[in-house]
Q: What sequence folds into this?
């Protein structure tokens, strides 16, 4: 039994979630291969060859893989699938875009966003925005799976010595091409891998008021997130959204500020180790999951919090 | 150009979902059902294309029990022209749904299919991608803005770091993300009009679609409860607790 993990990267660096997916793959087999499809992606392949638990890195370095388009990537996965019992990718927008396409081409019913590996064919995942947990068993010969990164520890980036092997590019279906991208620029840690996250909700009242979170985020080296209400209101860009339909985070410390705690938001953050809620409505559902709750006006509490942190950090 | 939209009947997003005591699934008896919110966005986008002269007809399809006709009626009340129900008592997984939709595409020959990015019951986010694969079409997932220009569709899509724009060769399968549009409400006259619009009913067997499940649900259980913690009285107390009790800062 050999498992293939599809790496997510930008040709220069590996996306952190891939390391968590490699850990999930290690629970299925000792023989974990990673596929790097990119253009000028050698730095990624080199980094992966040192990751603990990876036995082989397969590299398809071709201009058609410069940007992660689902159509050519799925075609490549299908070419390689015969060698494997399981195909895995992170349950990021990247993995969710590519893997179901490959699965359909293989006539396989994929399993999305697993949080646990029970056996080589049985997996655990959330349904209904985390309101229920399903244990599911795949009857397909090849299992195609996406992995929720926060449910698995990242694999160590040192200690491995995988062989690196080139694989030929697959035929490009010629259906799609890349035009451009508009990435949110931030000096802060990435939301899904940050150790501390501070999120604002509708209670922030405007995008300008998110500045009140920035000073605290800088102090704590935290990422900034938001509830769907704050994104829908246009306070912050969509990639800030934490929740069922946004990003799932599980940091050591999650500070929810002016967030009421709709179930769809809780689905994205309730596995955080410590949750703090600051809200002026003492009935807000967020307090039901918070380890520490402070009923307060955030416009008074946030400057105070920054000041208190200045004293100790 | 015809546009096909797929609409799913799901537990309303405002309902607190409860796991059945026997662990076989979640309670659906006497629970309010609605159209999957992402599918409302799909219907809205199709209607806007028709209103903008890019589409000639909007067909709303659903797959499931007889009552899914209500979901189709909602789409018709929003403005879709006609409906198709693929009637089955079985709970189909996304692969089977994609196969049924493929059969409908072969019958109706739309130039564009729009589906929600995920249904809020299974949270799978698979059907659109799988349909595109089975048809050999391009896929435009997590749509934020779309623009049709002759034989190509320029799509801006939500990705984890922001937005990405791609050019897709028509025909295309689109999956909608939250911010593509704000779906309209059906007006009373349109709800009345929708009652007269036709809905075809077919079965997976008639479409020649194999819907044998590939994934077995072994059990469904409650997630672990997270207990409410303590209330702190001041910011100073909060910081003290985070530093000395939880030991997550400092």
A:
């Amino acid at each position: 039994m050999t498992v293939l993990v599809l790496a997510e990267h930008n040709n220069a660096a590996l996306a952190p979630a891939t390391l968590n997916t490699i850990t999930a793959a290690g629970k299925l087999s000792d023989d974990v291969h990673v596929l790097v499809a990119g253009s000028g992606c050698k730095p990624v392949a080199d980094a992966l060859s040192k990751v603990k638990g990876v036995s082989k890195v397969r590299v398809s370095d071709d201009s058609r893989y410069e940007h992660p388009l689902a159509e050519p990537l799925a075609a490549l996965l299908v070419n390689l699938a015969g060698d494997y019992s399981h195909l895995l990718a992170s349950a990021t927008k990247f993995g969710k875009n590519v893997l179901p396409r490959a699965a359909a081409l293989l006539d396989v019913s994929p399993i999305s966003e697993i949080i646990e590996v029970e056996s080589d064919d049985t997996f655990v995942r959330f349904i209904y925005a985390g309101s229920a947990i399903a244990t599911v068993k795949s009857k397909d010969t090849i299992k195609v799976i996406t992995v929720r990164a926060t449910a698995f520890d990242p694999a160590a980036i040192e200690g491995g010595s995988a062989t690196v092997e080139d694989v030929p590019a697959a035929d490009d279906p010629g259906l799609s091409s890349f035009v451009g991208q508009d990435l949110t620029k931030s000096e802060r840690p990435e939301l899904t891998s940050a150790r501390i996250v501070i999120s604002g909700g509708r209670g922030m009242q405007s995008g300008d008021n998110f500045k009140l979170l920035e000073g605290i985020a800088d102090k704590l080296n935290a990422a900034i997130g938001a509830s769907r209400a704050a994104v829908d209101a246009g306070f912050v860009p969509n990639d800030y959204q934490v929740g069922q339909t946004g990003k799932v985070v599980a940091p050591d410390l999650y500070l929810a500020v002016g967030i009421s705690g709709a179930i769809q938001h809780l689905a994205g953050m309730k596995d955080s180790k410590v949750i703090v809620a600051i809200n002026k409505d003492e009935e807000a559902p967020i307090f039901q999951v918070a380890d520490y709750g402070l009923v307060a006006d955030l416009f008074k509490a946030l400057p105070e919090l920054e000041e208190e942190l200045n004293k100790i950090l | 150009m015809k546009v096909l939209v797929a609409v799913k009947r799901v537990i309303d997003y405002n309902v607190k979902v409860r796991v059945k005591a026997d662990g076989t699934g979640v309670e659906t008896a006497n629970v309010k059902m609605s159209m999957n919110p992402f599918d409302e966005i799909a219907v809205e986008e199709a209607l806007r294309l028709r209103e903008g002269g890019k589409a000639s007809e909007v067909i709303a399809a659903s797959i499931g029990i007889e009552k899914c006709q209500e979901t189709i009626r909602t789409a018709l009340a929003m403005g879709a022209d006609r409906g198709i129900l693929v009637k089955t008592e079985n709970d189909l997984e996304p692969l089977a749904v994609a196969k049924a939709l493929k059969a409908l595409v072969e019958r109706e020959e739309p130039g564009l299919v729009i589906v929600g990015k995920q249904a809020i019951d299974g949270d799978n986010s698979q059907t659109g991608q799988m349909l595109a694969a089975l048809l050999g079409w391009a896929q435009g997932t997590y749509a934020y803005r779309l623009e049709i220009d002759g034989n190509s569709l320029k799509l801006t899509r939500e990705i984890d770091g922001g937005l990405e724009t791609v050019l897709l060769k028509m025909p295309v399968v689109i999956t909608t993300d939250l911010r593509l549009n704000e779906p309209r409400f059906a007006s009373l006259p349109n709800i009345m009009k929708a009652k007269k619009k036709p809905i075809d009913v077919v079965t997976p067997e008639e479409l020649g679609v194999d819907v044998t499940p590939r994934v077995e649900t072994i059990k469904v259980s409650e997630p672990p409860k997270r207990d409410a913690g303590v209330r702190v009285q001041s910011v100073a107390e909060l910081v003290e607790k985070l530093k000395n009790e939880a030991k997550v800062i400092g």
